[in-house]
From TrEMBL:
Keywords: Iron, Iron-sulfur, Metal-binding, Pyridoxal phosphate
GO molecular function, one term: cysteine desulfurase activity
Family statement drawn from the similarity comment of this UniProt entry: Belongs to the class-V pyridoxal-phosphate-dependent aminotransferase family. NifS/IscS subfamily.
Annotated protein name in UniProt: Cysteine desulfurase family protein
Keyword Lipid metabolism included in the entry's annotation: no
Pfam families: Aminotran_5
Co-factor(s): pyridoxal 5'-phosphate
Coiled coil: none
Chaperone in keyword set: no
Organism annotation: Paenibacillus urinalis
InterPro entries: Aminotrans_V_dom, Aminotrans_V_PyrdxlP_BS, Cysteine_dSase, PyrdxlP-dep_Trfase, PyrdxlP-dep_Trfase_major, PyrdxlP-dep_Trfase_small
Gene3D superfamilies: 1.10.260.50, Aspartate Aminotransferase, domain 1, Type I PLP-dependent aspartate aminotransferase-like (Major domain)
Length: 383
């Protein structure tokens, strides 16, 4: 089997698996306890925070550990919206954000916040000027993803962050960086981004752990009531094994970023060139997007049928994002990009990682061609 669903979850590094298991076995103290076992766990927690901060080039106390990017996004959006509601109740976002952002904002709209959904172009990107034009006196938060998890589209978050900081420094800027970190470099301290979410399992770390970068000076209303862990912004005993495992993955991803980007770009190009040779297929991504995602539709064919056919041919791909793929509805992301229901219902996402070689891509291409032939022969029977 060849696995091409890294954007849903990437296989953890051996070193991460070993580290998580070792920390579980040896360092089971509670980091809040004041005896030696607690201090030991606390030291590991501090070291992990330091490693993440150093890799991201930010300060250690700007990192909050969470149970994953779903929580990071909820905390960033609801936490900022609640904390700064006295300034206004207007939020700017798009309709193509990840469910954890889209639904958090929908929740806020239900309790009285005003939302502007800025349109995206055919490749899924917002225009900086459209975001800036949507700002009103009431705007307190802009939330955009860095890289779209279905299509790989890249929003110009650095340009938007700089413009916001220059002209609207009080507006909080949250960026969901889950699909970007490790593939697209970003200097958080210099870009006007106030909040940045990262998830462990998209970068070959463990599942169930993530972080939120919170720029110094910014305050969030905590969503969890309880202890004073994570500077009071995220109550609950820290999961030291997963945090240590993730910090390892963050460091490795940071070190390998430029090498990985070049490798993925080469593999992505092979796939894009192949898809462009099939007039029946519609490409929903491009080489301008993130290097690890390729997305195409085969209008008239059900995405699920294609996925299972490819699985029989020993390649694993995905339909929409993993979080939405069990819902039998057309992709909200593709509809948001102005694509027809037929296109939004027949999308296949291929996502790549550092273990893939050119040989693997050729095998995938072979399977895609076979899938097309099989689908064509089914049509022959129907006639
Ligand atoms: N944002 C994006 C862009 C994602 O791709 C995902 C994972 N599908 C998440 C947020 C949620 O991350 P987690 O699985 O860590 O909750």
């Amino acid at each position: 089997m060849q696995y091409f669903d890294y954007a849903a979850s990437a296989p953890p590094y051996e070193d991460v698996i070993r580290t998580v298991s070792e920390v579980m076995k040896l360092h089971y103290g509670n980091a809040s306890s004041i005896h030696a076992y607690g201090e030991n766990a606390g030291r590991l927690l501090n070291k992990s925070r330091f490693v993440c901060a150093e890799t991201l080039n930010v300060k250690p106390d700007e990192i909050i550990f969470t149970s994953g990017a779903t929580e990071s996004n909820n905390l960033a959006i609801k936490g900022a919206a609640l904390r700064y509601q006295s300034r206004g109740r207007h939020i700017i976002t798009t309709r193509t954000e990840h469910a954890s952002v889209y639904e958090s904002i929908r929740f806020l709209s239900e309790i009285g916040y005003d939302i502007t959904y800025v349109p995206v172009d055919a490749l899924g990107r917002v225009k900086t000027e459209d975001v800036l034009n949507a700002i009103s006196k009431e705007t307190i938060l802009v939330s955009l993803m860095h890289v779209n998890n279905e299509t790989g589209a890249v929003h110009p978050v650095v340009e938007i962050g700089r413009a916001l900081k220059q002209n609207h420094p009080k507006i909080v800027f949250h960026v969901d960086g889950v699909q970007a970190y490790g593939k697209i470099p970003v200097q958080l301290a210099e870009t006007g981004i106030d909040l940045y979410s990262i998830s462990g399992h998209k970068i070959r770390g463990p599942k169930g752990v993530g972080l939120l970068y919170i720029r110094s000076g910014l305050e969030l209303t905590s969503l969890m009531s309880g202890g004073s862990q994570e500077q009071g912004m995220r109550a609950g005993t820290e999961n030291i094994p997963l945090i240590v495992g993730m910090s390892k993955a963050i460091r490795l991803a940071g070190e390998r970023q430029s090498e990985l980007k070049a490798q993925l770009e080469r593999l992505q190009l092979l796939l894009l060139e192949e898809i462009r040779q099939h007039p029946e297929w519609v490409l929903n991504s491009s080489e301008e997007g993130a290097p690890h995602i390729v997305h195409f539709s085969y209008p008239g064919k059900k995405a699920e049928v294609m996925l299972h056919m490819l699985e029989q041919l020993n390649v694993i791909v995905s339909t929409q994002s993993a979080c939405s793929s069990k819902q039998a509805i057309p992709s909200r992301v593709l509809l948001g990009m102005g694509k027809s229901e037929e296109i939004a219902d027949s999308g296949i996402r291929i996502s790549l990682g550092d273990e893939h070689t050119e040989q693997d891509i050729l095998q995938l291409i072979q399977a895609m061609r076979q899938m097309k032939e099989r689908l064509a022969s089914f049509e022959g029977w129907n006639r």
